[in-house]
Amino acid sequence: xxxxxxxxxxxxxxxxxxxxxxxxxxxxxxxxxxxxxxxxxxxxxxxxxxxxxxxxxxxxxxxxxxxxxxxxxxxxxxxxxxxxxxxxxxxxxxxxxxxxxxxxxxxxxxxxxxxxxxxxxxxxxxxxxxxxxxxxxxxxxxxxxxxxxxxxxxxxxx
Length: 158
Known about the structure:
The chain is α+β, with helices and mostly antiparallel strands. The chain is built from five helices and four strands; from the N terminus they run H-H-H-H-E-E-E-E-H.
């Protein structure tokens, strides 16, 4: 009888360890909440819902509800650029900077059929919840790349 209790106890401990390890791996795979927000944003962009994607991010920030004109203007600008860019191809994070565990800046290279653009997303965690602090896009990314590259041209002055 005691032997069966020991076996049952050992099996129970093993089961708890397996469940705990599985949950820990699932949480690590999901990543931080702000990354889930960026992932959802780019899923929406990929589906051709760029304006809705901007709205999704900015709706996480209660302060943005007080300035709806800015949100609507950014959504309209992004929607207007979409036909000029062509279909979405992919996105790649260029840099992510974290500050004090409360602020995250992400800069993405976003490839469209006709040209790449830059999208910058900032997140802030003033309490228990991450919010989108800002989202920006720049269609002049190629100009920035050219400017940086040209700045590296060696000039031999004699």
